[in-house]
Design goal:
Distance between the termini: 107 Å
Radius of gyration: 34 Å
Largest sheet: none
Order of helices and strands: H
């Protein structure tokens, strides 16, 4: 069985940082990743809101076009009715 020293200085590997430093680095990286995830979620919410606005605008345009086409058909029908 391997005995692990309780002295953090003894945890240092000759080739790199000690375990405490590695844990601190991982914690820092994790916080950075969480921050990036929050930014991505905020961006996604903004994109979804923009998509809803675009869909609403397109629906309004479609209604205006439909009303315009109906007005044109009504004018044609009035002209044909008047000629008949």
């Amino acid at each position: 069985m391997q005995v692990v020293s309780r002295d953090p200085a003894a945890w240092r590997d000759d080739d790199g940082p000690c375990l405490v430093e590695q844990v601190a680095e991982v914690c820092t990286d994790a916080e950075r990743i969480r921050s990036q995830a929050r930014e991505i979620q905020a961006d996604a919410r903004r994109v979804m809101a923009a998509g809803r606005r675009i869909r609403r605008d397109l629906a309004e345009q479609r209604e205006r076009l439909r009303a315009g086409y109906l007005a044109i058909r009504l004018q044609r029908a009035d002209r044909e009715w008047g000629e008949g």
